[in-house]
Write a structure and sequence with these properties.
The structure is a single chain. Helix content is 35%, strand content 26%. With 239 residues, the protein is α/β, with parallel strands linked by helices. It has 2 domains: 127 residues, NAD(P)-binding Rossmann-like Domain (Rossmann fold), CATH 3.40.50; 104 residues, 2-Layer Sandwich (Dihydrodipicolinate Reductase, domain 2). It has a 6-stranded parallel beta sheet, with helices on both faces. A 5-stranded mixed beta sheet has the order 7-8-6-9-10. Strand 1, helix 1 and strand 2 form a beta-alpha-beta unit. Helix 1 crosses helix 6 and helix 4 runs parallel beside helix 5. The chain is elongated. The protein starts with a strand and ends with a helix.
Length: 239
Amino acid sequence: MNIALIGYGKMGKAIEEIAISRGHSVVVKFNSQNPLESSQLRTTDVAIEFSQPDLALKHIKLCADGQIPIVVGTTAWEEHLAEIINHIDKREASLIYSSNFSIGVNLFFEMNKYLARLMNDKTDYVASITEIHHAQKIDAPSGTAVTLAKDLISNHPTYLSWKLTGQSQNMEKSDLPISAIREENVPGTHIISYTSEIDTLTIEHKAHNRKGFALGAIIAAEFIHKKKGVYTMSDILKF
């Protein structure tokens, strides 16, 4: 495949390395110095987008207008998902999006949902989420942590919403707390804990580098190539 990279930071470079190792070509790279223009996508089979939330909608629509399948790893734009799905459908285009393309993280998503169902009548335990990322990460909590929170809430009757610790003084019993920690050189760690007076039960996903995210993005690009419609990683992994 001929791939366009929209966003060429550390993640974009990791994707390029994996793409080439799997026999694909990166034919064009877009960043702040070379903004995306639809005319430059003509030789592209698939676009992979890891940029910023305020740019993601524009990038998705430009690719849809040119009927270029797009893989979107940028998060914090999903409140516009209904608008984007409508745009994709009208143009008979294609999109696959995820808060995290790592295969390991998507397995972790399923573990989180299963554990929440096991714990939903264990009222002595209080759930919490901790996410740790590199200091340059803009959004807090991470998109992955938000997905984990939403999935836990959907499978556990005690929790109705999530709140970022440190931003709210009024944490209710129905609020699931998320702690967002920023440290140097941390690709991404997510921890789900259930704590009672007598013990703590914890599951954790810890990324050692960006290769898992990059590989998942390329697998998603291979999946969506020549397809139409809107997909998520669940469609690839058949959960």
